[in-house]
Amino acid sequence: MQTIHIDSQSDLPKVAEAIVEALGDRTVVVFRGEMGAGKTTLIREIVAQLGADDTVTSPTFAIINQYSTREGRCIYHFDFYRINRLEEAYDFGYEEYFYSGELCLVEWPEKIEELLPENIMTVRISIDDDEERTISFD
Question: Nearest 5 degrees, angle CA 92-CA 94-CA 98?
Answer without folding.
Answer: 155
